[in-house]
Amino acid sequence: MTFLEYAPAPESKAVLNLKDSYGLFIDGEFVDGSGSSFTTISPADESRIAEIASANDEDIDRAVAAARRAYDRTWSRMSGRDRGKYLFRIARLVQERARELAVAESLDNGKPIKESRDVDVPLVASWFFYYAGWADKLDYAGLGANPRALGVAGQVIPWNFPLLMLAWKLAPALAAGNTVVLKPAETTPLTALIFAEILQQADLPAGVVNIVTGAGSTGAALVRHPDVDKVAFTGSTGVGRDIARAVAGTNKKLTLELGGKAANIVFDDAPVDQAIEGIVNGIFFNQGHVCCAGSRLLVQESIHDEVIDRLKSRLSTLRLGDPLDKNTDIGAINSAAQLARIRELSDIGEAEGAERWTAECAIPEKGFWFAPTIFTGVEASHRIARDEVFGPVLSVLTFRTPAEAIAKANNTPYGLSAGIWSDKGSRILAVADRLRAGVVWANTFNRFDPSSPFGGYKESGYGREGGRQGLTAYLKGAAA
Ligand code: NAP
Ligand code: MG
Questions:
Q1: Mean pLDDT in the chain?
Q2: Helices (H), 258-335
Q3: Count of other CB atoms within 10 angstroms of residue 153
Q4: End-to-end CA distance of the chain
Q5: Residue 175: band (very low, low, confident or very high) from pLDDT cuts 50, 70, 90
Q6: Do the Cβ atoms of 195 and 8 come closer than 8 Å?
Q7: pLDDT average, residue stretch 57-85
Q8: CA-to-CA distance for 372 and 288, rounded, in angstroms?
Q9: Distances from the Cα of 409 to the Cα of 76, 120, 373, 419, 437, angstroms
Q10: What's the CA dihedral at 30, 36, 40, 41 to 10 degrees?
Q11: Full-model pTM
Q12: Closest CA to 359 of 309, 293, 312
């Protein structure tokens, strides 16, 4: 079979106005960091993007002090209506600079431009618009008699949705009246620093948001700082555990959004065409670097062969390559370390006896790449059925009855998300009711909306982000 040739359609980098090096953003200004700086690269070709400052304990101290001052002197005294105005302004500036942010995100992270342009950045704007609307309504939302901010929030985010995770953290914290010190991931600091420029453009009072770049030790110092009132973390379960230990016995409030190993359940009455698209979106969106990815496909035995055949032919049409090309479906793996982990778990899958299939595609010479891969014949005991791969790797298991599907879906230490594909509404509701997952999608997958709470059970963490529930994490005495 021959496919149509696609001419390259690269998005221009001319829209970027990058600096050669970036400092820490503290008290409204870019300042030097005291740690040794590091380079952020493009994972698509390993080229250097910019030099990034690193914050040590002293810098964290300065950032937290700036946030405390801003909290005491300005932000906590401002009316909700005025806080809302700043958030609306930030949302509009994100829209104005959307193209620039999308290009920067794809460059630094490796995700396809059509995702950063059509998913990440529009959601970032919608998160700020949504919480802007809450800022003056806290008294009327059943959040307690006199909902009050907690104070200074220390927030640590991962590399898979760098700017979107920043928005998930900042928007509710600021709407509720807190000030913030935020640490982006080491491999993807770029859009947070451009966002700092947006905060300057928005004239946000100095110190309300501080952005401290650095490695894991910077995050560790931030969550341990004694003058931080609230810790919010998104990342791996291992680091989440470490943070929970560090915060235990203090007065800090904590929310953790951790890993997942979601079941995507396809019943034999499912609309198969849509299900195939949903499976592809579930695990190959953002190279599978998605905490709520549908990484375990549970397919009813009677339609297994049909689904797998159709899935393979669909995957053979996906285009892997330059993240800045508008035709690209699969971008680069975010880092060499993540690529090594995906390779290791995939090799273990093969060694344990699952059957490996990989879509045929040309792999670029430079950069970090992994072709879409499916494992069939996976047993519930296999590592690829239990561990989060966090890459474009799908494990396929089968079931015969709804009860077996539910048991297999829940047989995981995680509980972040799940998907159900069926023509019958009653079956969808009955199954969804018995799944231990924070989010259950029906006949769709990986849908996000600021009004819809998101979060996990078990080792996927605790607390909810999004919606009215997302505000309670940043208010004194508020119940969800
Ligand atoms: P990670 O290693 O846990 O890193 C997350 C963030 O924590 C990064 O900013 C990291 O800094 C920082 N960090 C590392 N060690 C730390 C420590 N001891 N104390 C404080 N902060 C520390 O996770 P990742 O590999 O970047 O991200 C992938 C994981 O995040 C996956 O397991 C995924 O499921 C999970 N995730 C969950 C959600 C959700 O909403 N539930 C969303 C996205 C990702 P460095 O970058 O410098 O290491
Ligand atoms: Mg990078």
A1: 97
A2: 272-284, 304-315
A3: 30
A4: 55
A5: very high
A6: no
A7: 98
A8: 9
A9: 45, 28, 21, 10, 9
A10: 150
A11: 0.97
A12: 312
Listed residue (275, 279, 285, 312) closest to 297, CA to CA: 279
Q: Which residue(s) pair with 38 in the sheet?
A: 52
Q: What is the band of 167 on the pLDDT scale with cuts at 50, 70, 90?
A: very high
Q: Is 295 helix (H, G, I), strand (E, B) or coil?
A: coil
Which residues have any ligand 1 atom within 6 Å of their CB? 156-160, 183, 185-186, 215-216, 219-220, 223, 234-236, 239, 242-243, 257-260, 291, 388, 390, 416, 461
Where is 38: in which H helix or E strand?
strand 38-41
Task: Report residue 5's pLDDT band, with 50, 70 and 90 as the boundaries.
Answer: confident
Q: Is 291 a catalytic residue?
A: yes
Whole-angstrom distance, CA of residue 243 vs CA of residue 186: 18
Span from the CA of 106 to the centroid of ligand 2 (angstroms): 9
| Rounded-to-integer distance, Cα 104 and Cα 264, Å | 32
Q: Are 206 and 86 in contact (CB under 8 A)?
A: no
Q: Which of 332, 336, 334 is nearest to 322 (CA)?
A: 332
Ligand 1: atom nearest CA of 183 is 9
Type of residue numbered 276: I
Q: Which of 294, 136, 275, 124 is nearest to 194 (CA)?
A: 124
Write the burial class of residue 51 (CB in 10 Å: 0-12 exposed, 13-18 middle, 19+ buried). middle
Cβ-based neighbour number of residue 449 at 10 Å: 13
Choosing from 257, 388, 459, 465, which is the catalytic residue? 257
> What pLDDT sits at residue 477?
74
Identify the band that residue 24 occupies on the pLDDT scale cut at 50, 70 and 90.
very high
pLDDT(480) > 60: no
| Alpha-carbon span 185 to 213, nearest angstrom | 7
Ion ligand 2 neighbours, Cβ < 5 Å: 40, 108, 187
Query: CB-based contacts of 172: which residues, under 8 Å, 6+ apart?
Result: 131, 134, 465, 470, 471, 473, 474
C-alpha 197 – ligand 2 centre gap (Å): 19
What are the tokens at 452?
């819809």
Q: Are 340 and 369 in contact (CB under 8 A)?
A: no
